[in-house]
Amino acid sequence: MEYGLDLEYSFNEFLKGFGLSSEIAHIIWLPLPMLLVLVAAVVGVLVTVWLERKISAAAQQRIGPEYAGALGVLQPIADGLKLLVKEDIIPAKADGILFTAGPILVLVPVILSWLIVPFGQNLLISNVGIGIFLWIALSSIQPIGLLMSGYASNNKYSLLGGLRAAAQSISYEIPLALSVLAIVLMTNSLSTIDIVNQQSGAGILSWNIWRQPVGFIVFWICALAECERLPFDLPEAEEELVAGYQTEYAGMKFALFYLGSYINLILSALLVSILYLGGWGFPIPVEVIAKFLNLPINAPFIQVFTASIGIVMTVLKAYLLVFVAILLRWTTPRVRIDQLLDLGWKFLLPISLANLLVTAGLKLAFPQFFGG
Amino acid sequence: MSIAITTQIICFTVLSLVVLIGALGVVLLESIVYSAFLLGGVFMSVAGLYLLLNASFVAAAQVLVYVGAVNVLIIFAIMLVNKKEDLKPINDIKSRRIISTLICLTLLSLLIRVDLTNVWNLASPQNSIGEESTIRIGEHLFSDYLLPFEVASVLLLMAMIGAIVLARRDVMNKDISTGLPVDQELIEKSSEPLLTNKN
């Protein structure tokens, strides 16, 4: 399944044409995909913020942003600019160092996790062998940042918000990891590329969602809880905790939290589409279409075409999930903290354990369908 | 010297410095909260050292277990009992310090001796397994290291049962300090009712 399109190789060859050594070429190449993914993440956040505003307006029978650009598409940029020029306040009795380090610790792991998100066979920053496990490990750092900012704010609402965030993410990490484990069991690999390739056999029919329906639902619920989206937004519940751990934050530090939560939402949606919805795969396999049209699969223009279809499909699937998340946020009430912990420990955990066990059994019984 | 090796040496120096200074900070700082956060930094840098040794799975496991679970729980516990307390000065603090210094120095010399006398079986870059280590670790855990693996799970089970016994309402239904009955429905509720009973 090795496709010809390898941008890194062609870029390095291109630079070597100017007489540069391969090491220098590699160093020039290294920051490019990172920058690209960073820009993609931020643009993704702008789009999501606009969608959130428009969809929430539609759900509440309002018009929503309208004057900033056509249909208000420039509204998120205006929001961002406003946050950039706002005064950066550190409360007098807050702990300055921890107060500053908190938001950074929340944002950095989320951005690092984009390392493993593939948009095509070779379109990802690094195909690390531990793949999806890296994301699980990195997302476990986030609660430290939340606890840190909750503590440093020197405000009881902030501290409660931080404690809730930590309790929530610890409880929901376990069913999340267990449902990922069922996928890994079927793939025999932790790499996100292998996970998508394993689903690419028969187009839409071979997507993991048909083989892992329970895992899909558990993963989606846990991902929403990890992103602190309604119905699980207890750490920042406005009516009870002012704004939870973000209460004392203003300006760019608040913007880091804001950015972090939206990047996390898009990342979770991307990962759901990679793990369960076939990643960059088109509902009908591209090879079948190429064969039907009598086109050679390795021709350059076909390669470019499949790569663009891959990117479009990944983003499309992710944004469908983002749409569902936004609809859920504006139509469901918030759960209580005891309901949240009950759901996590007494319902999702046993169900995901049973799912893992059943998957292992099915893998032994039907190796051709559930990965040999 | 190639660029890759230079980068490795720089990373190694920075990570070791962070580990050493961070560990000293954990022990020496007055504020327990700072110590706890620094401990997280130390764990992270140790994970970075594993990464330099090409053990990415161990590094990720280190982050997940030590930073994501152990350290978060330590900080969580510190913040739940966030009590300002003036500790009584200990009388024989000097002799205690001398004894603990002696013990630590003995341990250090023992470790240095092991380091110098042991013949380290270093893998050359050619036969290092790298990404394959995940599979290798799994194979070892389910064959020759099966017994330690299972014993560790029994240990965790015991800790879990202990925690459940401590948290159960019918076992510990009284507040230890005030002796009042406790409603433990929500962890965030205060131990005393907000509105005192009128009757």
What does this structure look like?
- The complex is a heterodimer of chains A (372) and B (199).
- Chain A has 372 residues and is mostly helical.
- Chain A has helices spanning 7-16, 22-29, 31-59, 75-85, 96-112, 131-139, 142-152, 156-187, 192-198, 208-211, 213-226, 238-241, 251-276, 286-292, 300-331, 337-365.
- Chain A is globular.
- In chain A, 44% of the residues are buried.
- The mean pLDDT of chain A is 83.
- Chain B has helices at residues 3-28, 32-52, 56-80, 93-117, 133-141, 146-167.
- The termini of chain B are far apart.
- Chain A binds chain B through residues 23, 27, 98, 128-130, 133-134, 136-138, 140-141, 143-144, 147-148, 150-151, 159-160, 162-163, 166-167, 170, 173, 190, 337-338, and chain B through 2-4, 33, 37, 40, 44, 56-57, 60-61, 63-64, 67-69, 71-73, 75-76, 79-80, 82, 130-132, 134, 185-188.
Summarize the structure.
Chain A is mainly alpha-helical and about 375 residues long. Chain A is about 65% helix and about 0% strand.
Round the mean pLDDT of chain A to the nearest integer and report it: 83
The DSSP helix count of chain B reads 6
Distance between the termini of chain A: 18 Å
How many β-strands of chain A, per DSSP? 0
**Shape descriptor of chain B:** extended
Helix % of chain A is 55-70%
Q: In percent, how much strand structure appears in the residues of chain A?
A: under 5%
The helix-and-strand class of chain A reads mainly alpha
Q: Measured on Cα atoms, how large is the radius of gyration of chain B?
A: 24 Å
Task: Give the SSE string of chain A.
Answer: HHHHHHHHHHHHHHHH
The biggest beta sheet of chain B reads: none
Number of strands of chain B: 0
How would you describe the oligomerization state of the chains in this entry? Answer: heterodimer
Kindly estimate the percentage of residues of chain B that lie in beta strands according to DSSP: under 5%
Give the termini separation of chain B: 83 Å
Largest interface: A-B, 30 and 32 residues
Radius of gyration of chain A: 22 Å
Which regions of chain A contain 5 or more consecutive residues with pLDDT less than 50? none
The geometry of chain A reads as globular
**How helix-rich are the residues of chain B, as a percent range?**
55-70%
Could you report the average pLDDT of chain B, rounded to the nearest whole number? 80
